[in-house]
């Protein structure tokens, strides 16, 4: 399918997403605190050195194959879409899209996960071995940043199959409408399809994962200049750094947008809390409420 080219069609589909698919950004910014579950090692990196969250490219994430679940929904709803020449082209092109393992390499999408749940037993299990914590982020200021990206989307992940079908059908009909009115060539149609369902796939997950209560933040950079690499298990993993601070022009300081830290369930909780309290004092990190999980889990 080739690299995605941002043109009028992809831009219109992006606008359609913002208006009809994802949660309204203003609602998220003025809504509840959002939490990012991570390890204590990563927390130290965020607080002390980087003051940034490392956002990994989706095809290098542990659960990236979950993103292909959208293909199952497309297969279920396409039969209900009115027949047309554009539908025939769509079906032909989508077979190529769905069978290509590496299509996310062409999209260059980076993503990280958030949730409204500050004490999720399911998510603590993902960060076992006495390592889990989460950070509560000021969404209004965080998402109010000017991200240096082609596209930035924030939305609640959709788990209900009924809602998934309704959204996917609406998106297909919009794409076919654009293809017909703009008389898209097969190449441009292919590009629009790749962008549309590659992006949408980040926000549609199997109902079995509903207990994660996930929000997704996805980011498509303007260029490769902002991409960094870390080495994990012998592999180079691409990521971008997204600031989790606001810059105070008067003092020149970087003020963290982290409002809470919750320590996950573990043994020796007292010494962990005591150490983190002292850490925050020494680093002069004020305005962060420290909590401990109430989940009845012990390692």
Give the helices and strands, then pairings.
Elements: H1 8-20, H2 25-29, E1 34-39, H3 40-50, E2 52-57, H4 70-77, H5 85-98, H6 103-107, E3 110-115, H7 121-125, E4 132-137, H8 139-142, E5 149-156, H9 161-182, H10 186-200, E6 214-221, E7 227-232, E8 235-243, E9 245-247, E10 254-256, E11 258-263, H11 269-282, E12 289-292
Parallel strand pairs: 11-12
Antiparallel strand pairs: 1-4, 2-3, 2-8, 3-6, 4-11, 5-6, 7-8, 9-10
Helix pairs in contact: 1-9, 1-10, 4-9, 5-10, 9-10
Describe it for me?
InterPro entries: DUF2971 (IPR021352). The protein has helices at 8-20, 25-29, 40-50, 70-77, 85-98, 103-107, 121-125, 139-142, 161-182, 186-200, 269-282; strands spanning 34-39, 52-57, 110-115, 132-137, 149-156, 214-221, 227-232, 235-243, 245-247, 254-256, 258-263, 289-292. It is an alpha+beta fold and 299 residues long. The protein has one domain (8-292). The strands form 3 sheets. A 6-stranded antiparallel sheet has the order 5-6-3-2-8-7, with helices on one face. A 4-stranded mixed sheet has the order 1-4-11-12. The model has no long low-confidence stretch (mean pLDDT 86).
What value does the Rg take, in angstroms?
A: 21 Å
Number of helical elements? 11
Helix content range: 25-40%
Quaternary state reads single chain
Shape: elongated
- Unreliable sequence segments: none
Task: Report mean pLDDT, rounded to a whole number.
Answer: 86
- Please state how the strands of the largest beta sheet are arranged side by side: 5-6-3-2-8-7
Main structural class: alpha+beta
Strand content: 15-25%
Distance between the termini: 47 Å
Q: Got a strand count? A: 12
Organism: Neobacillus thermocopriae
Protein name: DUF2971 domain-containing protein
InterPro entries: DUF2971
